[in-house]
Automatic annotation (TrEMBL):
Organism lineage: Bacteria, Bacillati, Bacillota, Bacilli, Bacillales
Source organism per UniProt: Chengkuizengella axinellae
Name of the featured protein: DUF4280 domain-containing protein
Amino acid sequence: MGYFQENVCDCCLCPLQCAIKQFEGENITFFYGITNLTLIGISVEDFIVSGINSSNGLPSCAPVSQILAFQPDNPKPQSDLVKPIQKSVKGECACIEDPITNKFKVGDIVTISTLGPVQVTAVGEGIVVTNDDSGDQFIFSTCSGVSIVIFNSSDTTTNQAAIKQDIKSNWDKESRIFNQANTQSKTQSLHSKNGIVLFY
């Protein structure tokens, strides 16, 4: 991760880029709030992830700084994805990343923004690794979540099932509202420059 200067690049972006780098050459779905982007044969360098857009076949890129979470096609061992948590005393890491990362505990059921419910399997510097009920792996940036709901792992199995169902119902409702409002084609939100599609 390089020299740790306790700024947003060290505690938020470097851990996320390091995690993404473990999947270079593979296919990944990236989540930006309620929207997502699937890239084929990804690469990541200088905090930019690149690949072929699965929806239109065009070479595309997106900034790591805007990624809420990503879902790889082929999960990796969580030990390859997280760096040890570092306690910061200054800079953005102390006031942004540290407090929210420390809220997560292995075993907790969480939703982050519109994604979830998932169960936390590992927590590292700026990164939370989770799995859903199907075994799919989701890696979150703790700095990018707009809203976070954490249900403690001590909840009973019955309560956890009820919580998951309630969250899923709310998510399905929000998705329908978004899809109805979003009448424009996805391609209208893209800007092409020199053959590269930029997402924003």
